[in-house]
Each structure stands twice: as structure tokens, then as C-alpha cells.
From TrEMBL:
Signal peptide: none
Protein name in UniProt: TfoX/Sxy family DNA transformation protein
Gene3D superfamilies in the cross-refs: 5' to 3' exonuclease, C-terminal subdomain
A Pfam family reported for this protein in Swiss-Prot or TrEMBL: TfoX_C
Stretches the record annotates as Disordered: 77-109
PANTHER family on file: PROTEIN SXY
Domain (TfoX C-terminal) ranges: 4-79
Taxonomy, superkingdom: Bacteria
Biased composition (Basic and acidic residues): 77-88, 99-109
Organism (species): Leptospira ainlahdjerensis
Amino acid sequence: MNRKISNLGKTILSRLKKAGIKNLEELKRLGSVKGYLRIQSLEYKRLPFCYYLYSLEGAILGKSWREIEEDRKRELRQKVTKSREQKRIQQTLPGLGSHTKENRRADRT
């Protein structure tokens, strides 16, 4: 991400690039939650919602993160929390999420 995008400073742009998100179009395709989680996966600590998650959402919408409605912010936080919980469960029980068609067929035999 070389060009200036509203809401996103040098640090967040650099972290997006490290996370494999190269431009605003790709961020829009992924969405703010997946973008945030990709950046989060590169960090050792949790990142603040207000700076990262809301800024990504604001960049996608073309407005300041401060203009995002509280209901939307709550929805975004819930999605991040749900994704973190699902990841934690998958790490705890690795075979739980691996029921593809092939695995179900193998289970029946």
C-alpha cells in the first residue's frame, strides 16, 4: 500500500503490507475484521480496536473511524471476538474443524 488512504497512517499501512494486503481494493474484499485479524496474527499482543479495526472499517467506508456508528463498532468487535474464540477452539481441538467431504466418507468406512 503505497498511496495515502484516509484513516491509515504509516504504521498500519506497513502492517497491512506485511499481512499481505497490498491495496485498498484487497482490504475492501477481505473486510475490516479479516484485515484486523491478519495484522493481529503478526503481533504478539492484542491490538487496540479503535486504532486498527475501526480505522480499517473507516478506510473501507471512506470516512473517519469516529463517524462509524456505535452499533457497527459493537458488531465488528463481536465478529473479532467470535473469530478469536473459533481459532482458540481449533487450536485446542485440531481435528474438530477438519470435517471435509473426504473426512466424512472416511469416518463412515
